[in-house]
Design brief:
About 35% of the residues lie in helices and about 20% in strands. It contains ten helices and ten strands. The chain has a six-stranded mixed beta sheet with strand order 5-2-6-1-10-7, sandwiched between helices. A two-stranded parallel sheet has the order 3-4. A hairpin with a 3-residue loop joins strand 8 (about 245) and strand 9.
Length: about 260
C-alpha cells in the first residue's frame, strides 16, 4: 500500500476559506506533492475530549464552529464522504477509543481540506485531541496510528503553531508578527529540526512566551500526533511559513518518517 507522511497545518483564521491569500495556494501545492490518499484522518484542534475519540459518520456534516464572521462563510460546505471503515481501523489500533457515529467535520478539518482537496471526494473522519493530556501522550497516540501511514491514509493534523486570539491585530498585513510570536515560533521550529523530544514535550516550561503563544494547548497538540505517527526517525520538513493577523504563525510541516 501507499506510504503517505503525516502533515501538520496551521489552519489560521476561518477567513482563509473566503480569502485564501498565500496560505490556500500553499496548501494546494502541499496536497499535490503527496500521493493521493485512500482516506484522511484529520486530527483537529477544534474537537476536544477527555479520552481518545474518533468520528465515524458516513456522511459528515459541515460544522461552522465559529462566530462573528461574514454570512458567506456559513454557507460553505465540504461534502466529503465519511469513512466508518477507517474509524474501525483506528479503533483496532488505539485501545478503548470512543467511536462517535455522528460527529461532523469542524473547520479545523474542512478549512485546509477545502484548499487541499477541493473536490471533496476523499473520505474523511476526525480524531479528537485531549487538552488535559500531555504533548507526550499525544505523541504516543500518534505512534499507535503509524500503521495507517503505510496503508494510504493521510494523517492531517490541523491546529496552529501559535494561537492567541486576544492578541490578533486585525490590520496587520500577512507576514507581520508580534515579536513574541516570532520568538516562540523560532524556538519551536529549531527544536523540531533537532528532534529534541524532551524539549518539545516540555514546551510549556522551556519555550519562550509559551503561555502567551498558547493560552490553552489544543492548537499545538495535533502536531505531536503527526510527529508520533511518522515514527522514531521522523524529520520535520517546513513546507510553508508565514504569519497572519500578527498573532498567528502559519507554519506547515511534513513529517518524513519511517517509510516501509
Amino acid at each position: 500500500m501507499t506510504y503517505i507522511p503525516p502533515v501538520f497545518i496551521s489552519h489560521g483564521s476561518p477567513m482563509l476559506m473566503l480569502e485564501p491569500g498565500r496560505a490556500g495556494p500553499a496548501w494546494q501545492v502541499l496536497a499535490q506533492s503527496l500521493p493521493r490518499p485512500r482516506a484522511i484522518l484529520a486530527v483537529s484542534a477544534h474537537w476536544n475530549t477527555r479520552t481518545p475519540a474518533v468520528s465515524a459518520a458516513a456522511q459528515p456534516e459541515t460544522i461552522h464552529d465559529f462566530h462573528g464572521f461574514p454570512q458567506p462563510l456559513y454557507e460553505l460546505t465540504y461534502p466529503a464522504p465519511g469513512a466508518p471503515e477507517l474509524a474501525a481501523e483506528v479503533a483496532g489500533l488505539v485501545p478503548d477509543i470512543h467511536i462517535d457515529p455522528d460527529r461532523g467535520l469542524d473547520h479545523g478539518a474542512w478549512s485546509p481540506l477545502s484548499a487541499m482537496y477541493p473536490a471533496a471526494d476523499i473520505p474523511v473522519i476526525q480524531l479528537a485531541v485531549m487538552p488535559q493530556a500531555s504533548a507526550e501522550t499525544h505523541y504516543q497516540l500518534g505512534r499507535l496510528l503509524q500503521p495507517l501511514t503505510r496503508s494510504g491514509v493521510l494523517i492531517l493534523a490541523s491546529g496552529g503553531l501559535t494561537h492567541n486570539l486576544r492578541d490578533i491585530v486585525a490590520e496587520a498585513p500577512d507576514g507581520a508578527a508580534l515579536p513574541y510570536v516570532r520568538e516562540f515560533r523560532d524556538w519551536f521550529v529549531k527544536a523540531l529540526q533537532r528532534r529534541d523530544l524532551p524539549a518539545l514535550f516540555d514546551w510549556r516550561r522551556q519555550a519562550p512566551q509559551a503561555a502567551r503563544a498558547h493560552p490553552s494547548p489544543e492548537h499545538l497538540l495535533p502536531l505531536f500526533v503527526a510527529m508520533g505517527a511518522a515514527g522514531e526517525m521522523a524529520a520535520a520538513q517546513t513546507t510553508y511559513s508565514d504569519y497572519q493577523l500578527g498573532a498567528l504563525a502559519l507554519d506547515a510541516f511534513v513529517f518524513a518518517g519511517d517509510e516501509p
